[in-house]
């Protein structure tokens, strides 16, 4: 069984390694270098810049802890260089390529753009051809741009690596995950940031409480957020750019030194010339069924190339599913309800499962929220702005979703995801003990609050009620065989 994997990002690497483990002869073809956007341009370098921005933020609170000193100056060029160094680390230190090869995968990288020459074969610019009995497409996507006049004047998050100085003012068009991360980093560095979002709220796909709290935190930092607006044109005016946009049909203009697009993530599948083999695509995404099979039965797809979920954990999971179905001929479905996600904004947020709005539309549910300022650790760290929200199905008492906003939320959410994956009921979670003082205590407190709201007993209480009670020594003799 020969398996050809096209694309070396999280989905492609996951698929290739799984295919090799299942006994297939695997070839992984990557046009640049393995790691994909997540390592080379996306989460890894962006998270590094977010860390630098967090340090700047922390310096502003020194006096709260009785510390004295001048605030650090931001050297954007040096910060970006460090972000690039972190991306290179995955290749030079972790030896990603060597590891993949050691697992029995033939790795071909740096070959440039490839394309289909027949349903089982691709060709690279140097004339080399690679074939497979089954093929998994994991070519990812790219930063989108609005089809408006002057679009070429704007940057995307991929271009942040080329910055050598901090813009005095910035406009970010798009207020979802990528836009919020860019805006958060730049405002903490000291740029005057305006976010233009087409929807009625930033983070429109997130839980409403997360969107509202994040918008409030951004506004408190001096960020300007304009929702329900449509960018219509970008033009240069001397040393600045003018971004024209519509609000309730009225044209408005905002000026800035730099403009960033964060408006979606089109797929790269059309670069493979899919029409040559009858492979159906839509907006650059491979059209797949719930088993990740395309319109060509032996060709599957995974990751951003499917358009299903633009998350690294989802991409890895889809890679596993696609490899299993391709190599073993199974019909495993792709499900990603329990895939945690976190974003490196300030404040941070993490989510897993359904939003409150989605849950209430499908289930009878209970919602419990614990504020960070009810815990000791956030107060100790002077980071008491935040919350933990649990959404629980009322009858069976399973956790349907969780949303955490505030310090360490992207880490905290992993615990709730584990509870959901193991079908833990809310009273079981409420009975767990947490290290003190920690941010994670918010999960336990929210679980206990939910148990009280549901009117059910915690597990320990249920167990104590089932245990036999020792007889009263004043009224009966206590025998050793009646009570341990």
UniProtKB/TrEMBL annotation:
Its cofactor is FAD. The keyword NAD applies. GO terms for molecular function: nucleotide binding; oxidoreductase activity. The keyword Manganese does not apply. Residues 2-319 form the FAD/NAD(P)-binding domain. FAD binds at residues 112, 304. Belongs to the class-I pyridine nucleotide-disulfide oxidoreductase family. This is FAD-dependent pyridine nucleotide-disulfide oxidoreductase. It comes from Nakamurella multipartita (strain ATCC 700099 / DSM 44233 / CIP 104796 / JCM 9543 / NBRC 105858 / Y-104).
